[in-house]
Amino acid sequence: MRSILLCILLFSSAKLIGADTSDLDQKNNIPYSFCEIYDKYIDSIIHVKVYYDSKKDENASSIYEYFFGPTYSYQGGGSGFIYSGDGYILTNAHVVSGGNTFKITFYNGEKYDAVLIDSNEEADVAVLKIEENNLPFLTLEDSDNIIIGEWVAILANPCSNPFSISVGIIAGKNRKKNYFEVEDFIQIDGASNYGISGSPVLNMSGNVIGMNSLGFGECIGFAISSNIVKKTADLIIKNGKIFQNDHKNFRNEFVNNQIEKDSGKYFADLKYFKPNFQE
């Protein structure tokens, strides 16, 4: 009974906040409460564990200890979601960076070994693949149509707490950070914790409008727009792998198109971003 009342309050607040929500209601039709979004789409969310090559101890006291002493295995992780029914999964490039083994866990407990098809660090998008069909995938919506102030839900694995839901609002678009070359981040005001990297940002229609990438503090997050996510993922899936020239052509094509469309709109080069994830 308590959870039902909470859902009603959250759902009602989306209509109570602000002087006029008619445009938002008409755009999204607001068919779902947050409880319904969780129940309907949690099966499309994955937890990815990333295993790295073992490394020698750089602080070994002797050459013998360095070469014959113990090695250290490094492990990280993050979130992701099913992009297509035939087994393609999306997450952040920084989540899988340096990994050589990838383990996927679904909400129902099923586990799969995944293969990294490729990643694009400039867009911070990676594509994984598992051998499975008829999977419940998420739909990406045109992120150019998002409205500042609209409610969103994040399905993720924050702080090693798998398959959780967070709620927030879109607080801004086209955000820029000084230590990135170019960007097109959506600012999300809501809980932002370790482990949500790669998770989808869903609007109240249950469609993906962005993929979480950065977190600052505990209440401000930044998501890559769904248009960039889709363009990057489709290029990787089509080619099987993005080669150096493809990276360069992708970047030039995207930036030129965006400059023509909106001179202030870019997307982030994440080469200098320190990965923000944990198991």
Please tell me about this protein's structure.
Strands 1-2-3-6-5-4 form a six-stranded antiparallel β-barrel. A six-stranded antiparallel β-barrel has the order 7-8-9-12-11-10. It is globular, with a radius of gyration of 20 Å. A hairpin with a 3-residue loop joins β11 and β12 (220-225). It has helices at residues 2-16, 22-28, 34-41, 63-68, 93-96, 226-239, 244-261, and strands at residues 45-52, 75-82, 88-91, 99-106, 111-120, 125-129, 151-156, 164-175, 185-190, 200-202, 208-216, 220-225. The relative contact order is 0.17. It is α+β, with helices and mostly antiparallel strands.
Helix/strand order, N-terminal first: HHHEHEEHEEEEEEEEEHH
The shape is globular
Oligomer: single chain
Q: Return the CATH architecture of the domain at 44-129.
A: Beta Barrel
Briefly note the CATH topology name of the domain at 44-129: Thrombin, subunit H
DSSP helix fraction: 25-40%
Task: Output mean pLDDT.
Answer: 76
Kindly state the number of beta strands: 12
